[in-house]
Specification:
globular, alpha/beta, 12 helices, 9 strands, 304 residues, seven-stranded mixed sheet, two-stranded antiparallel sheet, Rossmann fold
């Protein structure tokens, strides 16, 4: 029997441009170049959104019932057109997937209902949105730079109802005296911003936390990376040099080596301890990132 087994036009094009006649001439790096990207692996440069959605879908499948309940309470989370996947009838993006996991970690060790919460560096406000959607707080105080605060204020005005938004207080860093004169906070939160501040500024904030707060949740990288293949250093060499000088933890590690990460975790726990009389009551890897860690600290005598 004569069989008509021909390459499709798609594969004729691949053969012409990428898997060419000399495909096997040098196999040194073939698993990281266009040959393999056309045979068994999608190119990460061209398929970044596909990989992002795969990451979100995979970790969303691992959420527990309590996590889904937290997520469903967060209304308007699709505002701003995020990159999402749909699972169990719910739309979810990476930001709010992380938010419900962070909130679950905190809830296991600390009661938030009626609490006064301060967040240092709130980004666009997704943590505030998640917490206020799940707990009846007394106040949520955001301390941030002016331009970033303009973003979080505008975003939270869109996604929170009037009663929730009325509980948010916005304090620019130049007006930190407002915080110093306020009553004590039950919890301070910092997520991925201490690593971008000067060590001296981080120390000032930790002193403020030690003075004004009863508990502290922190989620930041355990170190720095220099592998250009991870992001192409797309912001330029000067941005890389500045990043290496910020944060209390500046050791360069292989962020995708579990042993390298584990080795510096004790340094992380020590670096973010606000001061004497504080102790870490819980810590773990901060999913989905391999080199982010989360920890919760109590001030002695504050209890749970």
């Amino acid at each position: 029997m004569v069989r008509n087994l021909q390459a499709s036009p798609q594969w004729e094009r691949i053969t012409e441009h990428w898997v060419t006649d000399d495909v096997a001439a040098d196999l040194t790096d073939f698993k990281s170049d266009s040959r393999n990207f056309n045979i068994s692996l999608w190119s990460p440069e061209a398929n970044g959104v596909r990989y992002l959605k795969t990451l979100v879908y995979d970790f969303a499948e691992r959420l527990g019932e309590d996590d889904w309940a937290r997520l469903r309470r967060i209304r308007n989370r699709e505002f701003g057109n995020p990159v999402t996947v749909r699972l169990n009838g719910e739309s979810i993006c990476l930001d709010y997937l992380q938010a419900v996991l962070e909130l679950g970690f905190i809830e296991r060790h600390l009661s938030l209902d009626g609490a006064r919460v301060m967040e240092i560096g709130a980004g666009y406000g997704r943590t505030c949105h998640a917490v206020l959607s799940n707990h009846d707080l007394a106040e949520y105080c955001i301390v941030d730079l002016k331009n970033t605060m303009r973003l979080s204020r505008a975003y939270l005005r869109e996604v929170l109802d009037d009663a929730q938004f009325a509980k948010v207080r916005f304090v620019e860093v130049d007006d930190i005296g407002v915080v110093e004169q306020a009553p004590a906070f039950d919890l301070c939160v910092n997520i991925h911003s201490f690593t971008e501040m000067t060590p001296a500024t981080v120390r000032e904030y930790l002193d403020l936390i030690a003075e004004k707060c009863r508990a502290f949740y922190v989620k930041n990288p355990v170190g720095k990376f220099l592998d250009k293949a991870l992001d192409g250093h797309f912001k330029g060499d000067e941005a890389v040099r500045m990043a290496l000088r910020t944060g209390p933890l500046r050791k360069v590690i292989d962020v995708f080596d579990s042993e390298s990460v584990a080795e510096v975790v004790p340094d992380y726990i020590a670096a973010y301890t606000p001061g004497r009389g504080w102790h870490c009551v819980a810590e773990s890897r901060a999913i989905p990132w391999s080199y982010f860690w989360q920890a919760l600290y109590y001030k002695d005598g504050s209890g749970s």
